[in-house]
Amino acid sequence: MAEKSSADTPSIAVSQYVRRTLDFLEASPFIWLLLAGGALAAYGLMSAVPYLTDAQGHHVISRYAWKHPQLFMDVWNRPLYTVLTALPASFGFRINQLAHIGMAMAGIWLTMRLAQRVGVKRTGLIAPLMLAQPAFLSVSWAPMTEQLFLIVFLGACLLLLDEHPRMAGLVIGLAPLVRPEGLLLVVLWSVMLFRRGVSAGVMPWFGSLAWVLAGWPVYGDPLWLFDVSPYRIVPGFRVIQWDYLRKFYDDFSGPVVFIFAQVGAWAWVCRRPRTEIRKLAPGLLSAAALFLFFFAAFDNLIPTPSGFIGWRLLLSLTPWLAILSLAGINRCLDGGVEAAARTRFSTFVLLQAGVAALVAFVYGISGNTYAPMLWILAGGVTTTAFAVQRSLTVPYWRFRSHAVVALLVGAVAFALLKFPPAVRTPGEYLVEEAARWYQALPEPRPRVGTALWGFFQLTATDPWDPDTTVSLANLGGMRSGDILIWDDWAAGRWRRISKSSLLAHDKFNVVAHWEMPDALPLEVIVFQRR
User: Fold this and answer.
1) 447-458 burial, b for 16+ CB within 10 Å, e for fewer?
2) What is the pLDDT of residues 497-514, one digit of tens each?
3) Which strand ranges, in their side-by-side order, compose the sheet holding 483-487?
């Protein structure tokens, strides 16, 4: 038998290296889930505890729900969320944070299951594809309601795929018990499920009905939800903000992920039977409806220093972008463009160029040129590689898997650059100053009223205990010696408590004052009732 020549050795080594890379991409979803969980835990623990965001408010409400059971019916925190987070919140913010990271991992796992059910391979890659989207990364570590809402949404989609329409209706009916936009899904799914029978169509309403009946004895009014309903249009709502459409590409999904999603959508339409496309239709339609709802309703769908004020609202879109992106990656790894589909693909390349030109134009008139350059570069290289790989003379299969790994790493790096671990914002130092000042007062401390959730967390003060706190809704009931901590963000902007009126009031003295330029809040003033 002839001996192998030394010239064959490098070729064998390269083949083995490529095979190991492909094995890595096709690793068990459980391994990818563990890696993603470790990455999220590290990301969350490196992030500072927020004192000015909704996360602190949700945590404080869940923490004191055991002491004040009426909080389990709270309209802002929502009953299902409060029930599930009350226990971890009682052990502190970091434990509650880990519980929410667990919810985020459950969302990734359900997305993997959903991808398997519609015939997508290499489902382990769902984990990095979701982490690569800032809308997921920026909120997954914080005590927020979006993670649980995503679990309910995906669970209902899986049950519908498994031909359990009534159970799917019951589960989607829990969505309003987690977030306000859950009502939108209830209406939408009721219409879709009526095709499966009247009983399936009415199932989504049972969750909201149970909530109303449970709150009746608490509020003493069968129509209590209409009096405190967050669905009412308020001045904070806005009309459609077309300028924010440009943010969807690079800030929300990341350019690489969105390009893969386009390729995957193209491959899906060209190659998948219509029955499989119909399987994803309820979820995709619901995700699109949620996006349009927030796009039309809110004017704050933009990134902020705290990282998850706007894009967190679009978390429900991330699983679908991940699934479509994985379909695009599989298309790249498993053979590229079929001859029969080249005509359609050339149309797709033209559409891709058109989208790049549109984004470049919108960014150009807004004065920002970095994003369109990145989009055109990534989009042009990717689409060109997909379009011509059949005519390449080099053995493309040797570096295809490495290119996918590089793109995945780049996508996650992009998300981290957009939203690195949260740091303490300048305004949060003012909250800490107010908390330290209050804790330095001699016992027994005076009653205090404030709109800053972080103050209650830092001082371990119960916001619903009338012996220790003052209700901001009843400032006229303040007693002599009571303290009001006013800030220009929560108290001034949202509670409409006037600083000028307090300064001019003859029954209030200013006992402490802090300011910080270019901060949110900019100013914190401590008033004491004479």
Assistant:
1) bbbbbbbbbbbb
2) 889 899 988 889 999 999
3) 448-450, 483-487, 523-529, 508-515
Residue type, 197: G
Residue 527 is classified by DSSP as: E
- Note the pLDDT of residue 133: 85
Structure tokens belonging to residue 162 = 């498994």
Q: Read off the pLDDT of residues 300-350 as tens digits, 9 standing for 90 and up.
A: 444 443 333 456 667 888 898 888 888 877 776 775 544 434 445 445 555
C-alpha 467/C-alpha 464 separation (Å) is: 9
Closest by alpha carbon to 50, among 418, 417, 453, 416?
453
What token pair was written down for 34?
A: 């563990």
Which residue matches tokens 């995957």?
A: 264
| 280/160 Cα distance (integer angstroms) | 10
Among 181, 182, 232, residue whose Cα is nearest residue 207: 182
Whose structure tokens read 């050339």? 346
Q: 511 phi and psi, to 5 degrees?
A: -110, -15
Hey, what amino acid is at 98? L
Other CB atoms within a 10 A radius of the CB of residue 87 amount to 14
Give the total residue count for the chain: 530
Residue 150 reports pLDDT greater than 90: yes
For the chain, give the longest Cα–Cα distance.
Answer: 105
